[in-house]
Every structure is written in structure tokens, then in C-alpha cells.
Amino acid sequence: xxxxxxxxxxxxxxxxxxxxxxxxxxxxxxxxxxxxxxxxxxxxxxxxxxxxxxxxxxxxxxxxxxxxxxxxxxxxxxxxxxxxxxxxxxxxxxx
Amino acid sequence: xxxxxxxxxxxxxxxxxxxxxxxxxxxxxxxxxxxxxxxxxxxxxxxxxxxxxxxxxxxxxxxxxxxxxxxxxxxxxxxxxxxxxxxxxxxxxxxxxxxxxxxxxxxxxxxxxxxxxxxxxxxxxxxxxxxxxxxxxxxxxxxxxxxxxxxxxxxxxxxxxxxxxxxxxxxxxxxxx
Lengths: 95, 177
Hints:
The complex is a heterodimer. Chain A is an all-alpha fold. In chain A, 69% of the residues lie in helices and 0% in strands.
């Protein structure tokens, strides 16, 4: 899906089109896989937090003061980080 | 074969009228990924080589996302793509380079980078004097991109400028990944 197509979808708050794009992107062109990948990244974050390890809340606060675009891109990076941590990596053939 | 493959394709569409893509591909992609196929009305004609290859300076441009291990990687997580490129010294060896990509399996290319970025083959062809010279740097970028117009204005234009003005190439080998 092209950026002009997504801009139009964003302008009309067309959630279906935007979510479909996200799933296709995260699932390497497979919407069902993308949906599963999203579920897995959230499950992985939850599994990590179940360890009750110390967390750096000051760092989180400082990160959240960054501009929105940086944070939005960080969200995508965190998704892929968590997917890799989950042990099921389908994207580039690497382990 | 899908129903879209059987649909007659208007001859006005240059990509469909030619032999580059299989018949009906335009429709099937647009059905699956709406808005993903961008129509382009203007085309730059391919330039002719002004001198024999054995006298020409050649550069390599690839969408494989290869870069030097000493360089930070391009951004493979951005949903619309990374609008930057990497210079790869043409004297590099495979052990000095790494593939950083999310959108295609590169197990085989990790074993032999030359299948997607034939840098060592070009070095050999230069040593055999089949190619006059290689530009000091080759070029690599992330092929995944959702904004072709921005890509053309940024990555494509910047690489074209560098190829002509900094590397003084006579010809370029384009290697998609």
C-alpha cells in the first residue's frame, strides 16, 4: 500500500485500511500472520514483565518526552525486538 | 491462474503491455494490496554506453540493504521505508559486509553475498580487464518502500548524483534483491 493511499485512509480515519496495512507490513505481506505477530509481541512483553525485574522508569519518562514521530517509530522497533525475543522469527531467515 | 489473469489488459499500460511482468499482475497486486502499484507517466530512456565495458568505470547499485559492518544499519522497521542509502567501498570483501533486511530471507546470501550483491565477481572481472575500473564506492539501500515518489526525490536522486558527480561512473549495474 502506498503512502498516498494511507494518507487518504488516515484523513478519513479509516481504521480498517490502516490496520490492514500494519498487519501486512508486520506479516511480510500476510495479513493473518501480521495479526499473529502483533499478538505475539504483546504476549512477549507481558511474559517479560511477569519476571518482576527492576525497571528504569526514569528512562521511560525521558523517552516519552521525545517527539511523536520518534516514539511512533520506536513502537515499530519495539515490536520487532519483542518478536525476536519471542523466539519465533520469520522475517529474514536469520536466527 | 486467477480470474484477474484472464482479464484482457489495456495496451495503454506500459508495464502490462511489455514483457516485464506477467499478464494480470497489476490487477492481482492491486486487489491484494490496494494502492500499492503506482502509475508513472514519464520514463527516462536508457542511456547507451559511450565506451567499451573494458574501458568503462562501473558502479553497482543494489536494493539488498548491504552495508559495512562498521556502519550503523539502515532502518528496517520503519513501515514506509528508509529514505537513505549506504556507500560500500568497492574493494570490500564479504567478511566486511552484512545484510540488514527484514523483507526477504537471506540465508543463502549470508553464505555467499555475491548472489545479491556481486561485489567480488565485479572485482574479478576488473582484474581480468573485462571491466575498465570500478567506482571507489558501490551503493545499497532498503528495497522495501511504500512511497515511490519520495524515494525518487531522495534515494534515487541522491544516488544518481553521487554516481555521476562523485564516483564518475560510466555505467551502473542495478541489482534488485
